[in-house]
Amino acid sequence: MMNDTILVYPYNGSLYAYNVTDPSVAEPVPPENVITGDGWENPRLVTVVNGKLPGPDIIVYEGQDVVVHVKNGMRSEGTTIHWHGLPQVGTPWMDGVPYVTQCPILPGQSFTYLFKAESKGTYWWHSHVGTQRTNGLFGAFIIKERTETSTEDLILQINDWNHDMYSDMEIIKDKYRGYDGRIPWPTKRSLDNSGLHISPIHAGLINGRGRYYDTNGTDNGAPLTIFNVKLGTKYRFRVIGTSSTNSFRVSVDGHTLTVVASDGYDLDPVDVESFVINPGERFDFEIMANQPVGNYWIRGITLEKGQNHRADAILHYINASTSQPQTSRHVCTATKHAKC
Ligand SMILES: [Cu+2]
Is 275 left (phi over 0), alpha (psi -120 to 50) or beta? Predict the structure, then answer.
């Protein structure tokens, strides 16, 4: 990992320059300009827009004309941008599907997407070529209603993360099976015991940040995404499943989630302790910041059997300390569910 010039490593939720030998007494490097992923220190390729993982949020009002200029800065791959969930009525050629609705934008070329934002809801954009999306080429696309609301919006993009999976490699491993050393990858199983033909993942990310856990379950202390909330305020989390292959169960310690919309459609509000989001899906939930001022874990956990991966973030009440949350998840039982 590096910012423009300095190589950095993670420690206790912060980043430090490589020449720092005792991070406990050193000044950390601000994480804002560092793509940390899960804090894995070996260099890896990411494919991102405007130097950010995820790329920029696009937030518009219903009915607005959206104009997005895309310049392909990659050296050897074409690209397109798909606007996930938008029906593109009247503008099917703006759907961003390579070789179907447009020719890919070649290296060095530019292309302008132009379409109407319809209808209100939580969507996202992502590359539709190879595994560029898996490597970070995605971002939020929010269409807001033209009505006054006192609820503040927060965007949460959750996805799985690999250290070494690129499009050609994926095809080869799919065909010939993947090996670590001389040991073939085990068949993945979901909770209902069905087999999953998917590549192993290394971590989960929320808004581009997560932590790598070693085989003993110890994390590497990489910085996480922090959602700042004010006591007594209501927030609408717009959760986007930007995963490649894995689904996540999402919960917030100490708080009830009121699910109000999915995939751009309003729902009768439902109070839940957690919900499952699959790749591509969106769920909007509201949360009241009505708990003691402090820090609470926002948890994403994969549905893999035996070996779950985590995507953690922090719900931070303004004026709380900056220490890591010490909260735990509320366990629901057969007789105590929903808001339990
Ligand atoms: Cu999509």
Answer: beta
Q: How far is the CA of 126 from the centre of ligand 1 (A)?
A: 6
What's the 209 CA to ligand 1 centre distance in angstroms?
Answer: 21
Of the candidates 51, 284, 64, the residue with the CA atom closest to the CA atom of residue 155: 284
State pLDDT tens for residues 198-247.
Answer: 667 899 999 999 999 998 889 999 999 999 999 999 999 999 999 988 89
Higher pLDDT pick, 93 / 304: 93
Q: Within a 10 A sphere around the Cβ of 55, how many other Cβ atoms?
A: 23
Q: How far is CA 265 from the centre of its chain?
A: 21
pLDDT at 328 over 60: yes
Q: Are 295 and 314 in contact (CB under 8 A)?
A: yes
Q: Cα separation of 28 and 16, whole Å? A: 5
Distance 82 CA to ligand 1 centre (A): 6
In three-state secondary structure terms, 61 is strand
**CB neighbours (10 Å) of residue 126?**
25
Strands 234-241 and 152-161: parallel
Whole-number Å distance between alpha carbons of 168 and 265:
36
Least Cα distance to 160 among 139, 133, 180, 140 occurs for: 133
216 conformational bin, left if phi > 0, alpha if psi -120 to 50, beta if neither: alpha
Between the CA of 101 and the centroid of ligand 1 the distance, in Å, is 14
Q: Name the residue among 38, 18, 34 with its Cα closest to residue 26.
A: 18
The rounded Å distance from CA 84 to ligand 1 centre is: 4
What residues contact residue 84 under an 8 Å CB cut-off, 6+ apart? 123, 124, 125, 126, 141, 280
| Ligand 1 centroid from CA 145, angstroms | 22
